[in-house]
Amino acid sequence: MLLPGRGLEGGGAVPDRENRKITTLQEWKTETARRSEAYFPETDPGVSECEADIRPDDYVNAFAEGARRLLLSDTVAKQDHVPSWWRHVTAAAAGVSSTEGPYMQANLASALIALRDVTTEENAA
Questions:
Q1: Is the backbone of residue 71 left (phi > 0), alpha (psi -120 to 50) or beta?
Q2: Torsions phi, psi for 56 (to 5 deg)
Q3: Which run of H or of E encompasses 71?
Q4: CB neighbour burial string for 77-105, b if at least 16 within 10 angstroms, e if fewer
Q5: Chain segment 90-109, per-residue pLDDT in tens
Q6: Which one, of 42, 35, 32, lies nearest residue 5 by Cα?
Q7: Burial of 38 (0-12, 13-18, 19+ CB in 10 A)
Q8: What's the alpha-carbon Rg for the chain, to the nearest Å?
Q9: What residues does each domain of the chain span?
């Protein structure tokens, strides 16, 4: 299940070696702690690491092609900038996308309901 939000872009498809801001493990831990303050209290600080994750296209392709089902929020596709990894995932055979109903909403509850509905429809067929 992929939803829009902070961390969607990640660190891009390739590392930006020219503008590297973090060069040590301690700097990484400090930056993770700083970013995690923007999340709800009690959120695992590791969640904020998604904001800096490097997502190579070939790596993303392997996961997307191996997925049984992918639920994607169309709100990302309608943004001005769509990350390259998102385009690869939407092209995967397991990808599902819709412009109607709960797929348009970027909240977890609606996304889980949509996932249940898709799975129920597939099992009925």
A1: beta
A2: -60, 140
A3: strand 70-71
A4: eeeeeebebbebbbebeebeeeeeebbeb
A5: 887 666 655 445 444 456 66
A6: 35
A7: exposed
A8: 16
A9: 57-124
pLDDT digits (tens, 9 = 90+) for 7-54: 777 777 887 778 777 788 898 888 888 888 888 888 788 878 877 788
Which residue is associated with the tokens 């939407």? 90
Buried b (16+ CB within 10 A) or exposed e, 7-33: bbbeeebeeeeeeeeeeeeeeeeebbe
- Least confident window among 48-52, 87-91, 116-120, 121-125: 121-125
Looking at residue 17, its pLDDT comes to: 76
41 CB-side CA count, 13 A: 0
